[in-house]
Amino acid sequence: MHTNYYFLRQLAPALTERLRGFRVAVCFTQEKDELVVGLSNGSQEFWLKAQLGATFPALALPETFQRARANSVDLFPALLGEQVESVAVWPQDRVLQVNFRSGARLVFKLYGPRPNAIFRTAPDAPAQLFQQKLLADADLKPQPAASPAPQSSESAQSVQSAESAVQKLPPPLADLPLRYLRTQGYDQALPDARTRLVNQVLAQLEKPAHYYIIQFEGRTRLSLLPLGDMLETLPGDDPVGALRRFVPMALGRRALEMETKQLRQLLERRADEASTAAEHARRRLHALAHEAGYRHTADLIMAHLHEIPARAEQIEVLDFYTNQPKTIKLKPNEKPQLTAENLYRKGKNQQIEERQLTERIARREAEAFTALERLEEMDSQPQLAELRGLRAWRKLHGLDPAATAAKTSGELPFKVFEDRGFTILVGRSAENNDLLTQKYAHKDDLWLHAKDVAGSHVVIRHRAGQTVPEPVIEHAAMLAGWYSKRQHDTLCPVTVTPKKFVRKPRGARPGQVLVERERVVLVKPGNPFDRDEDK
Description:
- By secondary structure, the chain is an alpha+beta fold.
- The protein contains 11 helices and 23 strands.
- Strand 6 and strand 7 form a beta hairpin.
- Helix 2 packs parallel to helix 4 and helix 6 runs antiparallel to helix 7.
- The protein is elongated and about 110 Å long.
- The two termini are 52 Å apart.
- The C terminus is likely disordered.
């Protein structure tokens, strides 16, 4: 890339030729992690802009630069007026050093995660740091030059020496040469052929014929080797021109690359989550289909009702479904008819659960399929290679960040019902009730709860300018009774009040609140939204 040693060793002499005799006219920053140095020889100017953020460290060389009138801060005042003597690269490192005739030094450390600029008025003077939190950079010094890489392919060299030569490539460029070697058959080659390939690559790196702007693994990169998708091919004798072309292009494409990556991760996550949810629902449905149902047991109790003695704790009967004996547990203080009635009710709920599981499997499988389809479209549609096209496509399919955030916020952790355009939310547990009432409910929402017993908090969301119709309140009250200890009562009193009159005392248990003002409605507990419940 643009910060590797092999590129910097081409850039350093080119900058020396351009800048020798130039003096520093300005040194300032006006953007976070950006250092701008302006140089002049009296008739020409040269701008050097170091971007020292961890996400994209770069040395940009804009042909012109306009300093902002505001939010601009001068840096390294002792650097002003210094005259350039030479520009050098540290051996086998991602560090470029500007040497001044007075002995001052300006070092650009272009390490990916921790870039920095270090200025010294003399070789032994204290260091002044651009990124002052990187205190260790004050002691940064060039490392001794590595021994030269092998330049011949004598038979004495082994596989180990060839691989060692590859491993000596500097870290910031190591991935591209290794990938390039593999495209040239390095992994399958014999030892002598491997050594020859390594030497050929090193020769290309040391004196490149071209610079390549490439698209590689979703990133725009500057390469000294032809690899990936070629965007542009630039002359190998003009590293300054290559850098001037590459950095603006990379910055311009960076938004596209980041949004493409985020969008791909979003779709992959959706496909994975939907597939996992469908599998869990499928397992639960399979378990329900292969276990003895409540209705089955209730039928056996009613069929053998005359055989059940009073206050029996269990009874053994012949199961006419399987023709096998079956033991049924009973409650001694409950009539068998009531036990059967409760089992029939549970059986009805089980049927509802089975239907909902079937619907959930179909819905989640469709979501996974849609996400995978979108991923395929991202790889096949040419217009998505441009930022404008990607954003339009993302918005068309409801994948833009605003829509995604809205959808996420709409996927609430409560039971959700819709009635005449109003949303009804039902808490699932004591802690979930607190979350609903204290965090999600607005002061103008209607709050409902079965009176004087434990149960779910119920909230009817307020709609601006609209009064909640009585049928909606009645249905919400039925839910409040159904999801409470009064579920089996004939009639249930339910508290109805605006949420602003509900408060949680200090030290109260989860789900416990005080109601300051209320009205009470009487309803029959039930769920009028059997088919719509989202469990």
